[in-house]
Amino acid sequence: MRRRWLFLAAVALILLASLLANLAIGAVTIGWRDVIAALTRFDLDDYDHFVVVYQRLPRALIAIYTGALMAAGGTVLQGLTRNPLASPSTLGINAGAMLFVIVGAYTFNLGVAAQGVAALAGAAFGFVACLSVARLAGLSRDPRGLALILSGALVSMLFVGIANAFLLADPARRSDFLGWITGNINHVYADRLADFWWIGALSLVVLAVISRPLTLVMLGPEKAASAGVNVKWTSRIALAAVTLGAGSAVAICGPIGFVGLVVPHIVRPFTGAGFGVTLPASAMVGAIACLAGDLIARHAFSPYVLHTGILTDLVGGIVFVAIVRRFYLTPGARGAT
Fold it and tell me: Do residues 189 and 253 make contact, with C-beta atoms less than 8 angstroms apart?
């Protein structure tokens, strides 16, 4: 237990350092003392203060929000499905949210608030579509859960293809969403964060409240039921919270992939399988991953700037192959963590 809390404390310190680094490093490096002064004693006439508060801080908050929700969502999905490849990006949630935003904006000219509602509906639709295809493919006869992941990949490819068709159909509006659709953590989406942050916060609170019964469900439905846990409703509430949280993150900055897949595998060796510690640890490590990814995307290929989603897809794709090799291709491997 002591090791778990030490890990949480270390992660919290790394998260704080990552936040300060994101606020300090940019086209012009700003000293950490000036960063703290901008946050505590903002001077409207100081250009550095303006850059920190109105450009870098919103970007960092979006990265923290997105990373925390995707990582927490991946942790819950992997636990409930007992599948090491489960995450919002592999089960159609991100793709569904992205598709509904694009279709809503192009077909019904939805504003920002309505796009958020569309993203939530799309996230739920994408997850249900993934489960439906998996059941048709024989999920109940697939103990390793490959049908679920392959169904998620199929649904995601279909949704991305439809979204790209809409983008190509109206070149004049393509630039409005071309960056967003690849996962773009950017301060210009600060108004979206202001509108939708409460959804993700509520999602994390719900998951924290049900973390203990959720841990019992993960250990087995029979054990959970014998301890007085309503397995069906606990699972449904957790899945709804994950879906809505991930959908709200997509509504803000587009689909940031693979954070939810990778982070639980980083955290679990230090915290164990119990959600009480694993969920907050995953949320913080996910936030760190997005902050680091955004910083690298902005500076590693200077003078070119990558969208954060492209970098996370690149890194996540490599890790995805490693996870498949470990859990599915290694002799004696099992499909569950």
Answer: yes
